Amino acid sequence: MLAKNTQTKALHWLGKQLFNRNDPAAFFDPLLEQISPMLVQGHTPARIEQVIQETPDTRTFVLKPVARWAGFQAGQHINISVEVNGVLRSRTFSLSSSPELWAQQGLVTLTIKRLPGGLVTNWLHDKLGCGTVIGLGEAFGDFLLPQPPHPVLFIAGGSGITPVLSHLETMVAQDFRAPVTLLYFVRTHKDIIAAEQLKALESRYGALTLSIIATDESDKPRYLKSQDLEAVPGLKARQIFLCGPMGLMDLANELLRKQGVREQDIHSTFFSTAAPALSADLENQALGGKVQFEKSNLQASSEGDASLLEIAEASGLRPRHGCRMGICHQCSCRKTSGTVINRLTGQTSGPGEESVQLCISIPHGPVTIDV
Amino acid sequence: MKQLTEDQLQELAQDLNTIRDDVLADLGERDANYIRRVIRLHRALEVGGRVMMPFGFIPPVFVAATFSLGLSKIIENMEIGHNVMHGQYDWMNDPSLHSQTYEWDTACSSDSWRRTHNYEHHTYTNIIGKDRDYGYALLRLSDDEKWHPAHILQFFNYILLSVFFQWGVSLHELEFERIRSREIRLRDKLPFLRDFVRKGGRQAFKDYVFFPLVTLPVAPIVLAGNLSANLMRNLWSSTVIFCGHFTQDAETFEAKDCENESKGHWYLRQLTGSSNFTGSKWVHLLSGHLSYQIEHHVFPDLPAHRYPEISEKVQAVCRKHGIGYNTGSFKHQYASVVKRILTYSLPDRLRMKLTSQPA
What we know:
The complex is a heterodimer. Chain A is an alpha/beta fold. Chain A has 9 helices and 16 strands. Chain A is globular and about 65 Å long. By secondary structure, chain B is mostly helical. Chain B has one domain. Chain B has 15 helices and no strands. The longest helix of chain B has 27 residues. Classes of the chains: A alpha/beta, B mainly alpha. Chains A and B meet through helix 1, helix 2, strand 4 and strand 15 of A and helix 2, helix 4 and helix 8 of B.
């Protein structure tokens, strides 16, 4: 084992010398990709095996990642990367299948809703068919089932059901012996994602109590209310998992607190919708925001049109830079989240991870930078 | 230098910004496909060259292998490395094509290049004393610099620089002339020297130790082929770069004229300080489109394969503002570089006499 390890290390060192890159294995990718995109070494390729239409605007994509992918735990998410009009876009989605499916058949599923105006989700729905290959990241996230088994309440809304599906499938496979309740909020009954799968789970898995609530089918919206929670036996002894739109999450948190549920028993996971497209007019926008400099573990906030470079320098950081006018790209670095506005073009960036020029990027709301 | 009022400069900046914005708005799959195609060509040429080289004891194979490897280095340095490091493809968000992390196949480290070329040369283009690329502190190419008897031999120095171009470029940041004049100390340059040894050593190890050793019985052939391929790249890239700024009519500037300059003034300096040469599609590819040096200097971070497409528009802007657009055939431009190196090697009085004589 040790010998093999040294051998790999030596090979990696040699590769770095020969190909001038930290991921020498990826040097041949441009040629390998021509043979088969599944041979690529630079990222983890995954092929679409099947596409299932769940609701009019939601599809489940069955993926087969290459064997070197490290797997996941139920409730975790992954970044996927796709090239949209020449630009590599990366987005985070929850896995909706169980780790057992990956272990037994080498498959995972992503259940993705088409977001109005969303660049990537629309592209995925329009362009991703059987046989297409996309890039996969390793799984992350701590929206995990309690071990050992413990009573659980899931409150999910819309496509927030995806990590819960992974949990439920896993609970069945592991014979999770504790009461499980799912309150699933959908707009109308047409919008139920994985309706048949949920029905099958309910009949197969005795511990599960399922109630699906349509919010928009009566004259008055039917949101989560105290009675829904009071109807859950032993609420205070449960671990509670929330995943859904902002409004539902806030309401659930508030009502749970009123029922006396402790904060540490509530687990929520991210659920984001695409940021609305903003007008490019600099003057009309609220500029500035909280900036998180990740590598230096520093926070700063700004108002007005201070650039990220100026904000960094004002906080005592010395990021590499050059011309300070957007020419030389000395200061380009990675933005891991948040939106910035380009001072020269007035254009608003996407919300995801990408490269930005610090000297001409103005924060637009909270931003995280890898500096 | 052509004088324009601040208003005219502002108009010039607007005209050029429009060209730039049009390209930026149109960036997409076509540009991504272009650079990926060039990268595939590079990989195929490098793999081909390395695989053929050990069979170089057959003379035609030696020639093919050397050309294949030499071309691969030229394409990687000029069209991929140089352009990627300018941030021309940062918008693709592809980590292997990112300006700040790309490492190219030459002795100069990418970090050093980004400081001396992207920042110093592209910001202070042709300002005597501030743009150290102007003559590489080795050649006298304008009368802003006082003549010295050592300049007589500068054509010989030019040939040496071209032959060892990758090493000249990699030692550029050492600023040897400032160490010699005691302006800075060698000790200040230790971090740079460490970086130089690491990267230069890596390149020398690869081409002159590793590949010859793994093909031991034919090591001398592989060594000779690798040396020739590097020489081929050195001569070509040096020639292309000299044609970009040292042609007869490329202008130089004084630092005091460029203090607190506007974007329009910067644009004007880039337009008048650079020169193009014409040629086939392949010439442009192999020169990393630095044959469109003017377009490159005005828009260093637009994908280079776009320069031919916007050249007409840039020329129209030049005509509108009465600014010269320095272009000509490769032969003509290179001849004027050689002439410039030769004439400025002479004492001013002799040079004046020679150049004022009617042809």
